Batch of 2 targets.
Target 1
Amino acid sequence: MKPKRNQIRGLAITPSVLADIKIILGSPPFRRDLLIEYLHLIQDNYNHISKAHLVALADCLKISLAEVHEVASFYHHFNLIQDSKQTTPNLTIRVCESMTCKMFGSEELSMNLKTNISNNIKLETVPCVGQCSNAPIAVVGQRVIEEATVENVLGCKSYTPQIPSYEKLAPYIASGGYGALKKCTDGILTRSAAVKLLSDSGLRGLGGAGFPAGKKWEIVRQQPSPRYLAVNIDEGEPGTFKDRTYLESKPHQFLEGMLIAAWAVEAHKCIIYLRDEYAACRQILIQEIKAISVAFPNGLPSIELRRGAGSYVCGEESAMIESIEGKRGIPRLRPPYIAANGIFGKPTLEHNLETLYRVTDVINHGSNFHASHGRHGRTGLISFSVSGRIMTPGMYLAPAGITLRELIDEYCNGMSPGHELKAYFPGGASGGILPASLADVPLDFDTLQEHDCFIGSAAIIVLSDHDNVASYAKNAMNFFAKESCGKCTPCRVGTKQASALMSARSWDINKLKNLATVMTDASICGLGQAAPNPMKSVIEYFKEEIS
Ligand SMILES: Cc1cc2nc3c(=O)[nH]c(=O)nc-3n(C[C@H](O)[C@H](O)[C@H](O)COP(=O)(O)O)c2cc1C
Ligand code: SF4
Ligand code: FES
């Protein structure tokens, strides 16, 4: 039976809610792919999304309530409520519970906040918000509180993001910025020459997988048009904050690289997917995209900025594309690959922010720019996000192949006083854990496999003799269990089972090893495949802590 007018499958549309929603969403036509953007608009306005809002939104988009609900409930940042009359807190305080923040007391902070906050404040524990060098971190509304304490969190009176000082368009252009793009668009460099330059530079994707960038461009260029460029600024890997650091200091170097890549593969549209946690970056991007569209009124591809909604798996490239299309961020089965079948089924070049940032360097300085750096037989540069038990945590651009010991001594001013190196995560929560005895291994793509680890996004978390390594591996597994999208059983069930087994004082090593094998072999995306890595490292290197 067809639903009656003013009803969506038996649920009445509230005319006043529908009218309000239409004001919030702006003028029609409403786009199905903007569903997540619309949910953000509603939530920003009311601090929650009620059932009546979902019904009205479904009506605006002419889709079923079930479709709207399944998307809204997938993302952690949407606060869904049944009844719009229900009172909801008007402020949310989020406390990061990931590894580095745990190291600096986030559990105690959460407990103490819980006993001190009033009813109109919602307290949530959340995974890494990409600010690890100033742990522990709390976020009050959208205001990041570094080295958070009960006093500075409750004393915070401004809930909007603090915008750091960064290089704006005029000084960027004054120092030669957008010269590399001009070289391309003026025909000084042909598209094939640009692709060759990139291939010769050896630049590899810096989102974690390390796929050669030039090769990716070549593959996408061979696909029929129209083509898209998608930019991945989801930066959800716990411990990683390099993309934010670049965006908050030199946004135009990234934007220039993005425009060069779009030119090279003749993409008509660039879609930038930014994690919701980076509210300051969002304002910077809105402002600077506007600035370039005024400065270069002709010939720019269209640029759209999208807002993630608190889902780590959306950093996986095909999940990100699903999310861009306004769906749940569930990774696709491959083939087909996104280079041939990406956004709306069209060929898509997807890159991490830093990869595009480096493209500008390569076009400006030539293919040797990367190859001339490196150490211990490795070539290139790596942006390490370093946090934990060191004197000066931060993001450091260092030669590929540098060892952890060198990184700590030369860039981080040594270990924190009274701390002796015990272990380190070389690649965030996914990359496994290495013991101090392997602090002299060159850090790069392909150098850590023999130790069952990988460098990924180069998020280094340093642990000392004050730390129990197994408890950090468990923290990582809990994170994967919460973030698993649930599509495949080995990941959905495996992460939860492993998490439970890792809570025991003595681990059931055989069971955990079997679980690890099934998860690695049978999960369809990198989340489930990599989730067992920290646990396997503890079994290999820190048995005394778990038996
Ligand atoms: C679970 C998961 C999360 C990921 N998160 C990110 C991310 O936050 N940012 C990113 O650039 N790549 C992330 N990736 C890697 C992307 O799938 C993809 O390889 C990358 O965006 C390609 O860009 P690149 O070639 O410039 O590295 C993730 C992969 C997986 C499996
Ligand atoms: S491995 Fe996990 S996160 Fe990836 S698709 Fe399967 S269930 Fe989803
Ligand atoms: S901000 Fe807390 S671990 Fe990254």
Target 2
Amino acid sequence: MNQVAGMESAKWRRKPIFLAMALFAAYAVIFGIYAWYTAPVTVLAEFAGTAADPETYMTPEQIAKTESLRGWRRWFAFVIPAWEWLVFWVLIAGGFAARWRDALERLRLPRVLRYALYVLLVWTAASLTALPFHFANQYINVYHGLAAPAYFGWLLDYATSFVLDYVIVLLLAGTAQWLMSRYRRWKLKLWLIIVPLGVFYVFIYPVWIAPLYDTVKPLSDERVERAIRDLAARANVTVDQVYEKEMSSVTNVANAHVTGIGSTFRIVIWDTALRSWSDEELLYTLAHEMGHYVKQHVLLQTVYELLGALALIGIGGWMYERFVARWGPRWGIRKPSDMAGLPMLLLLFLFLMFATQPADMAFSRYQEREADRYAMELTGSAQARITQAHKFVSAALQDPNPPLLYYWWFSTHPSYTERIIYSMRFEEERGRK
Ligand SMILES: [Zn+2]
């Protein structure tokens, strides 16, 4: 009798797994076709031959490389999240979620330790099974000459982010499930705990703590510093100090950023930027960053994210409770606070975060457009925006005009083609005045 029941349960558990695998395979094929056969590296006919046309600023070899690379990039971007959902689903429907909990309960460990080990098992399963995808992604970058073939260092980075993510998942899920076991209104309480953490992460850490570890020295080029201070004065921003940071031993990517508020406002320029950017490009970049500052984007973004977190916890938490009430007995999840529910909790939240990503990206692109506009008005020119986009797209083999779905889901900035066209219009308007 028992054996028959056991066999039966093994049988009906196989079906949802195979179904999910078939869905994943179909999704991967559809997005493969989408990734390779949409939006070639070119522009609308009306912009042919202008600064927005990749053929005017990229070599045929760079265009060919970008076309081969962008297919992979797009495909991995869509497929890796779906793969993670599949893994969590297999843990649930395959009975691993309940079996691992039972095995750990037999060890008679303290509850906190048992929970930490359980999260470690689940997170290791997710990270190890996703490793081949991430490795292939890195291999593609190496193959196209964008990264050095330093796989050991890469693996070390992967391990580091594994540990960091593990700690974050442990703290967040642990707090959530602990609250579930104790309080009815756990969702609101969880959010109230997250708010000060978010504020710390956005306002206190970068302003007061990160600079302590930042190895910077005052900018050595007085002429550049004078130009920067002049720019800041026009933006009505008081600059405490302009720093340069040695980054050329780590990367050849150029960057410059601003941090702090009020009296702690500081500008940090990477030495790579001092070498590869013209004065106009450096000033334009800083004007763009000051645009973010003047327009209060950090504050706006924080409010947006905290409200988003409230909605996510509310909806995700509600779905999770419904799921456990309805399907819990079938998958061996006893109640919402049972640690065997963790894969379901992760699956739901990762899925919801992915589903709402287009809203986050649209909000981010809105801020970037505002900062671009601000920088053009402050510096009085958009020429630097154009030359910088040309350099960056061809050096980093960026996709100048990603297709719509990719743009909606993953573009934090307007596309380079869009930004160049916008700059050209600004220059045209300026010429008319
Ligand atoms: Zn920006």
